[in-house]
């Protein structure tokens, strides 16, 4: 009987399911989310190559352990801490970018419905889009180089300060005039904020991506660079080919026609249901009266 009970208890031990608490489920969700995003980040950056290198290294160390290659294991043990520091230094730009991206993520505002008061009717209104598309197409036709950054949630103050303040209503004529060759304002980037031309001749950070087409020079690298450190959208008109591109979220969308360009710019406008739009318009009018 005793034996039977022991056998049964062993048998039921196999079916033992640990108690799962709500916190465990929350932990699983958080960890899945973090691991998924770290994997995506690995794939998007140079870290993917590093990751493959580390896997090869660990396989090598595993084999060294298996065959008791003590000298190799000794060298590995004594260099691992230096190796970790070296990796952090080498991948400092990627790590910085990943942390900046994390800081930009509006986790709570994305999950929770946003308060009407915090909603702008349009970040870039239809008139701004019309003017940007017309100016880009016109400049593309005559191969006038241009670099136009549209600011979003991330403030571009530090880049604005490198240029010359303009703060003028946005029109296609003004943009074309700014980028006209041999004029004082044509070099560098224009920054657009709240449907106005804020500054010109701004200096942007260059991307250090090595996989970018070698034919693309610093204008395109600057466009990708600013899109890596902010949520801005940047229009580039190539002086060499007249080709129009957009840099957004670290990606360069090349060779856009007027329709594609408009589509990309329109994607910056928040999708607001009509009833909320009407409410916002009313709110705006009331505020205007005050
Ligand atoms: N870091 C930067 N910030 C802002 N503007 C920049 C920056 N680097 C270059 N530019 C602009 O790009 C111009 C040089 O473009 P360059 O020919 O090197 O680039 P590109 O990508 O080949 O473009 P294009 O196809 O127009 O020749 C500069 O005169 C300047 O106006």
From TrEMBL:
<keyword id="KW-0812">Transmembrane</keyword>
<keyword id="KW-0067">ATP-binding</keyword>
<dbReference type="GO" id="GO:0106408">
    <property type="term" value="F:diadenylate cyclase activity"/>
</dbReference>
<protein>
    <recommendedName>
        <fullName>Diadenylate cyclase</fullName>
        <ecNumber>2.7.7.85</ecNumber>
    </recommendedName>
</protein>
<dbReference type="InterPro" id="IPR003390">
    <property type="entry name" value="DNA_integrity_scan_DisA_N"/>
</dbReference>
<comment type="function">
    <text>Catalyzes the condensation of 2 ATP molecules into cyclic di-AMP (c-di-AMP), a second messenger used to regulate differing processes in different bacteria.</text>
</comment>
<dbReference type="GO" id="GO:0004016">
    <property type="term" value="F:adenylate cyclase activity"/>
</dbReference>
<keyword id="KW-0548">Nucleotidyltransferase</keyword>
<dbReference type="GO" id="GO:0005524">
    <property type="term" value="F:ATP binding"/>
</dbReference>
<dbReference type="InterPro" id="IPR036888">
    <property type="entry name" value="DNA_integrity_DisA_N_sf"/>
</dbReference>
<dbReference type="Pfam" id="PF19293">
    <property type="entry name" value="CdaA_N"/>
</dbReference>
<comment type="similarity">
    <text>Belongs to the adenylate cyclase family. DacA/CdaA subfamily.</text>
</comment>
<dbReference type="InterPro" id="IPR045585">
    <property type="entry name" value="CdaA_N"/>
</dbReference>
<dbReference type="InterPro" id="IPR034701">
    <property type="entry name" value="CdaA"/>
</dbReference>
<feature type="transmembrane region" description="Helical">
    <location>
        <begin position="20"/>
        <end position="42"/>
    </location>
</feature>
<comment type="subunit">
    <text>Probably a homodimer.</text>
</comment>
<dbReference type="InterPro" id="IPR014046">
    <property type="entry name" value="C-di-AMP_synthase"/>
</dbReference>
<feature type="domain" description="DAC">
    <location>
        <begin position="92"/>
        <end position="258"/>
    </location>
</feature>
<keyword id="KW-1133">Transmembrane helix</keyword>
<keyword id="KW-0547">Nucleotide-binding</keyword>
<dbReference type="Pfam" id="PF02457">
    <property type="entry name" value="DAC"/>
</dbReference>
<keyword id="KW-1003">Cell membrane</keyword>
<dbReference type="InterPro" id="IPR050338">
    <property type="entry name" value="DisA"/>
</dbReference>
<keyword id="KW-0472">Membrane</keyword>
<feature type="transmembrane region" description="Helical">
    <location>
        <begin position="49"/>
        <end position="67"/>
    </location>
</feature>
<keyword id="KW-0808">Transferase</keyword>
<dbReference type="GO" id="GO:0006171">
    <property type="term" value="P:cAMP biosynthetic process"/>
</dbReference>
């Amino acid at each position: 009987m005793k034996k039977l009970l022991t056998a049964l208890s062993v048998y039921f031990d196999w079916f033992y399911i640990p108690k799962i608490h709500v916190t465990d489920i929350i932990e699983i969700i958080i960890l899945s989310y973090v691991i998924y995003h770290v994997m995506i980040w690995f794939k998007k950056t140079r870290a993917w190559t590093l990751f493959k290198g580390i896997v090869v290294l660990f396989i090598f160390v595993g084999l060294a352990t298996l065959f008791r290659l003590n000298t190799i294991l000794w060298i590995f043990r004594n260099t691992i801490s230096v190796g970790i520091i070296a990796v952090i230094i080498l991948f400092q730009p990627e790590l910085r970018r990943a942390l900046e991206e994390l800081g930009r993520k509006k986790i709570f505002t994305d999950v929770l419905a946003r308060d009407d008061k915090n909603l702008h009717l349009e970040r870039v209104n239809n008139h701004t889009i019309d003017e940007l598309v017309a100016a880009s197409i016109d400049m593309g036709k005559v191969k006038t180089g241009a670099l136009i950054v549209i600011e979003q949630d991330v403030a571009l103050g530090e880049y604005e300060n490198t240029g010359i303040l303009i703060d003028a209503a946005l029109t296609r004529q003004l943009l074309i005039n700014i980028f006209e060759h041999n004029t004082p304002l044509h070099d560098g980037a224009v920054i657009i904020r709240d449907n106005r031309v804020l500054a010109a001749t701004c200096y942007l950070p260059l991307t250090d991506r090595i996989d970018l087409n070698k034919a693309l020079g610093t204008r395109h690298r600057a466009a990708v660079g600013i899109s890596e450190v902010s949520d801005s959208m940047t229009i580039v008109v190539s002086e060499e080919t007249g080709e129009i591109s957009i840099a957004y979220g670290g990606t360069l969308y090349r060779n856009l026609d007027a329709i594609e360009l408009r589509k990309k710019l329109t994607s910056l406008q928040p999708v607001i249901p009509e009833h909320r739009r009407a409410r916002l318009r009313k709110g705006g009018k009331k505020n205007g009266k005050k």
